User: Which sequence fits this backbone?
């Protein structure tokens, strides 16, 4: 198993479960490490120590309320709790990027938001996420990108529960277009 930094195993488990849904334990693994999940194959553990690290991560995730374990016919099944689902979404958002087009379609995507003061933290988080996604701040609550980004923006707004406060406009022209074409290299 490759070297994982602190929390990386738990992060990977949450992301895998977010994609896979429910994962069951395997009886032979359960003999070595009770309630160890089938996720072992994603990490390629070489020895008992590696399996134990994964087992401990699963135990901590359960204790923190991020995983739910249900047993049916003597087999333990794990799935994400609502809290675990939110955490997995945050991890997914951290790694998400807007895909650049090979040939620019000539349209600008303008992301506008007017998030109320009572949701100030969500506004700041969205602002940070838009910058991390590769958008450029055009004005205070306006971001710009030349690449299709609706799916990524909708995911981010859902993570911060601000969907109704965010709009995406597709425009064929903007002021200072040459300046932004140079910045985005399109």
Assistant:
């Amino acid at each position: 198993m490759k070297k994982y930094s602190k929390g990386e195993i738990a992060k990977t488990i949450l992301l895998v479960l977010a994609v896979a849904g429910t994962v069951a334990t395997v009886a032979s693994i359960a003999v070595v490490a009770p309630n160890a999940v089938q996720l072992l194959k994603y990490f390629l553990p070489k020895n008992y120590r590696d399996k134990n690290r994964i087992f401990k991560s699963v135990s901590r995730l359960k204790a923190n309320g991020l995983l739910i374990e249900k047993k049916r016919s003597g087999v333990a099944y794990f799935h994400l709790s609502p809290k675990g689902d939110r955490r997995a979404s945050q991890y997914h958002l951290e790694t998400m990027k807007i895909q650049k087009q090979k040939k620019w379609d000539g349209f600008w995507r303008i992301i506008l938001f007017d998030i109320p003061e009572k949701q100030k933290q969500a506004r700041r988080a969205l602002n940070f996420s838009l910058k991390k996604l590769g958008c450029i701040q055009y004005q205070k609550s306006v971001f710009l990108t030349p690449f299709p980004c609706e799916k990524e923006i909708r995911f981010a707004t859902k993570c911060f529960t601000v969907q109704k406060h965010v709009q995406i406009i597709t425009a064929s022209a903007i002021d200072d277009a040459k300046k932004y074409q140079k910045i985005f290299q399109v």
Summary: The radius of gyration is 21 Å. The longest strand covers residues 67-72.
